[in-house]
Design goal:
3 helices; elongated
Length: 99
């Protein structure tokens, strides 16, 4: 749990940058996956700073991927209000000219 608390400020910053409701949850899940799947044998020196740097870089790349995914899945949509569509049977405005 202390590892999550250590990266909580960074996760909060990335959540604000992503600016959608589920972003924090996704980032926490990604962070847990990074920690779970990290291969410490890849690091020649078991340096805490090097592992933190790797984790920050991984989170940053995943944030970019989440942003792209969110932007491509977000589509602008408009609702058509059928009550506002011009009704040809309403003759009150047909002969008036608006200047």
């Amino acid at each position: 749990m202390s590892l999550i608390l250590m990266f909580e400020p960074l996760i909060k910053i990335y959540t604000k940058k992503l600016n959608y409701e589920e972003a924090e949850t996704y980032l926490i899940i990604v962070y847990i996956e990074i920690i779970k799947n990290i291969n410490l044998n890849l690091f020649a020196v078991k340096n805490g700073g090097l592992i933190v740097s790797y984790t920050v870089g991984s989170l940053k790349h995943k944030k970019i991927n989440l942003f792209r995914k969110h932007v491509t899945n977000t589509q602008d949509s408009l609702e058509i209000n059928m009550d506002l569509i011009y009704d040809e049977t309403d003759m009150r405005y047909k002969s008036r000219i608006f200047l």
